[in-house]
Amino acid sequence: MRKLKSHDRINDILLGPLERPALQWLAAHMPPWMTPDILTVIGTFGAVVIFSGYVLTHSHKGFLWLASFGFLINWFGDSLDGTLARYRKIERPKYGYFVDHTVDSFNEMIILLGLGLSLYMRFEIAAMILIGYLLMSILVFIRTSVTGEFRISYGKLGPTEVRVIAVALNTLIFFFGNPTVLVGQLNLSVVDIAGGVVALVLIGIYVFSSWKEAARLHRLGG
Known about the structure:
- By secondary structure, this protein is mainly α.
- The chain has helices at about 15-30, 35-55, 65-85, 95-115, 125-145, 160-175, 190-220; strands at about 10, 150, 180-185, 185-190.
């Protein structure tokens, strides 16, 4: 297996041509006291803001804007911490890899817990999305260990696109509501159905990608 510090980072996302220059500009203009660790904390704070915004929708739908603002904070901290470390050439590969991805998993739990406790999605569907996310995380980490390839994006979609989609859904819900439909014995909202599709897609990608990688390694005799 390759050493952690030599893994290839693949982040071929749809918004990459916009995001990468923006992150480089931000990294170049960060004050000296701003560190990657502080940015990681900011990203977690953003996740807490998202959680709070979703839970507070029980009192007013306007708190969807707070959740959307939380996604911006989360993006700023989570996306910029590694960029800043690379820009300043202060990478700590093992520490950064461990902290970044353990914190990411915690943040996703907080975010999806908030969504499941919100007015708009059933808790069990939010839990299924979290299961799908964690399965994909496991796949990414194992592939990194086995092949030396750290793949962040699948099908041009990565964390940034997911955040944009979440903010777009929040905006649509605020202006147009969240109508429900009867599916069998269940009364599901549009967001429930969309969340169910996301969960199935994540789990499907995990199963297909795992099978494909196992078959490839088998052919190589690895």
